[in-house]
Amino acid sequence: MLKTLAVENYRSLRDLVLPLSELTVVTGANGSGKSSLYRALRLLADAAHNGAVAALAREGGLPSTLWAGPEAIGRAVRSGRSPVQGTRRTQPVGLRLGFSGDEFGYALDLGLPRPGPSMFSLDPEFKRECVWSGPVFSSRTLLADRAGPTLRLRDATGAWPSEPQPIGLTDSMLSSFPAPELLVLRERIRAWRFYDHFRTDATAPARESRIGTRTPVLDHDGADLAAALRTIQEFGDAAALESAVQDAFPRATVDITSADGRFELRFQQHGLLRPLTAAELSDGTLRYLLWVAALLSPRPPELLVLNEPETSLHPELLPALAALITRAARRTQLVVVSHSQPLVRALDSTGAALLELEKDFGATVLSGQGRLDRPSWHWPKR
Fold it and tell me: Which GO terms describe its molecular function (predicted)?
């Protein structure tokens, strides 16, 4: 399980170190940095697929994602005696992401390349990348250490090789080298699962009937909803699915029909003469059933991250969603990003760890966290 998440210089996350639990709820006002935290977690996952550079390019490149404020905010600025002024940076420009748990820790440091004739001069490079054993980084616990274009891996005896191995500046060592420790960590990160805003408009993929196959993991766009629900009914926790539907829609049932291999969802509500297909469901009902399929997956991931799952749901459905999330947290570590106070309160009452973000002179901070409250975290130096 992940115990600590650290982010530095990513958008408003100038210097953030957060504790994580089995069920962590991240909340805060609009603009407090919730979405940036969600994106930072996705960037970490992209590194295991060697996609961090491309992901940053989709956000406008590294310069567009870096913290835009000063390196430090002095007392005069905080007291109002002096305005915030632009100053020349004295530290290397870099975006740093990392996490740690009881078994492994991982950190990466992305920076700009040295000026040159290449047209790819905005591609961020891996300046430092480390994997260590245990929850805290130190030179003694390092298993893999990458500095720029070279990589060192400890051998079976715990010794470092006499000669480092070369590695591409824009390639993550997680995806480039088949060392056992890296393979284990890479596959764990690749198994992380993210769900954002499911489409529920009239042409949403979840509303269409499709050829069905066993689907233990709901696709990110919900296109295989019917197959995913049927997989839970046959190979997963069918009773939990029935309970989740009943909690939200008393006396309602979900059935899946098949014609020539094409699966179609049938939703029977109390009082209706016939069941409704996915194409006929309201946005909120369809979205809730998508969350049911995602959270009751027969193949739970090591980490599941949900971004604003309350979107398009009627307030009366939020207690049922909270119960569904709480049940899922018994099988997998969950991070829920939400601005819905009813959902946050419902999850908080079940013992979830609540992290409230706020802004301090433009930088995202954890409300109430002092220096001594931060989890132990040390960044590898360049």
Answer: ATP binding; ATP hydrolysis activity
